[in-house]
Design brief:
This protein has about 180 residues and is an alpha/beta fold. It has one domain: 3-Layer(aba) Sandwich (Glutaredoxin), CATH 3.40.30.10. About 45% of the residues lie in helices and about 20% in strands. It has 8 helices and 6 strands; from the N terminus they run ααβαβααβαβαββα. Strands 1-4-3-2-5-6 form a 6-stranded mixed sheet. A hairpin with a 2-residue loop joins β5 and β6. α4 packs across α6. The longest helix has 19 residues.
């Protein structure tokens, strides 16, 4: 019985120590809100329909979505599919959606995007600087944010959460 108790205590401590190294979502949010976004020195605009990077960069408000497809290009491309509907909504509000992609295999990612039918433009972070410079979270839900003058004012993924989407629309329709 004593051995069983000690074993259970050890397991609890093991899990507790694994979790204690990770920042909480609240701590990550507090760190992100109010921080300034730094853009990569070089980005390539893809799937652009004759738009220019400046069209996105010069807007006061932007929705920024970061995609790291290091593990699975097809999976990350599929995760972008809901943006096919959201992209035009934000465009009507005059708010560009800046999707920044980091991938070790751009050709594979582009092929996946074409196969799946992604219709909106995205930026390729050539030197993988965006995540490093902005301390992007490992938490997928914290990789989309709304900025004002490149300062993060709201965090959450409206493509995967309808409540977050409604909050974005509310914020964007009540801009000063």
């Amino acid at each position: 019985m004593k051995k069983l108790f000690l074993m259970l205590c050890g397991i609890v401590l093991l899990f507790q120590s694994c979790e204690s190294g990770k920042p909480s979502v609240k701590a990550e949010l507090n760190k992100m809100i109010g921080s300034r976004v730094t853009y990569p020195s070089e980005m390539m605009l893809l799937n652009n329909n004759n738009r220019m990077i400046e069209d996105y960069m010069n807007s006061v408000y932007k929705v920024i979505s970061f995609v790291d497809s290091i593990q699975c290009n097809e999976c990350k491309a599929k995760a972008l599919l809901p943006w096919n509907e959201l992209f035009p909504m934000y465009k009507k509000l005059g708010i560009p959606v800046l999707t920044i992609v980091s991938t070790p295999d751009l050709s594979s990612f582009n092929n996946a995007v074409k196969e799946i039918g992604i219709t909106f433009p995205y930026m390729y972070d050539i030197h993988d600087e965006f995540a490093k410079n902005n301390h992007i979270s490992y938490n997928e839900s914290l990789r989309v944010f709304l900025t004002r003058n490149d300062t993060i004012i709201f965090v959450g993924n409206p493509a995967h959460n309808n409540t977050i989407h409604e909050m974005y629309i509310n914020k964007l329709t009540h801009i000063e």
